[in-house]
Specification:
The chain is α+β, with helices and mostly antiparallel strands and about 220 residues long. The protein is built from seven helices and seven strands, in the order E-H-H-H-H-E-E-E-E-E-E-H-H-H. Strands 1, 2, 3, 4, 5, 6 and 7 form a seven-stranded antiparallel beta sheet that branches. Helix 2 crosses helix 4 (about 85-105).
Amino acid sequence: MKTPVYLILPLLLFCHALIAEPLSAENAVRKTTGEVLRWLNMDRDELRKDPEYLKILVQELIVPHFDVDTMSELVLGEHWEQISEQQQACFSNSFRDMLVERYARVLLSYNNHSITYEPAKPIGEKDYVSVRQTITRDGAKPLPIEYSMHPDGKGWKVVDIIIDGISLIKSYRNTFNDEIHMLGLGEFIRSFPECFIMEFSEINSQVISSGSAIHERI
């Protein structure tokens, strides 16, 4: 049996919380697909008129079903352990915002296609599984999409998406590695607005604190 689905926004498959009985990874994908499409069809006009509204919905309905911290660690690779906890937190938030921005834009070009599912398959040694879908497109070859997921005690969370053989994590990692090579790790982290603001605030606080200490001694 085939189900209509949005071709270029696979992240939407996990937009609703799976509050009911625990679901398998495959059934989680199947269940949430229908919920997402109902939401899209209901709010389509409003989403086209107000991109900011679209971003809010993406943030509230999609992001919670992705393990952003794990994705952030994977995308930075060896550099993750070289930055402070505060920098890790601000980078994760910035990376989350990048995902919101990216998929909010492509959502506006929604099209109906059809999709078939394959049973989840174990990958690695940490309870990770991969759910594969194949999207049938008119006038083009079928498009395979694989979701790498792991359980978090409440359901399944996505840690990577592989579209037609291209990993989202590896793609971002290659881009970020090039930027780190050019800028250095510190400047790369500061290139994200939230991290820059965090570091500026810390420096400002230190200056104020030092000034107060000097004033007290005087």
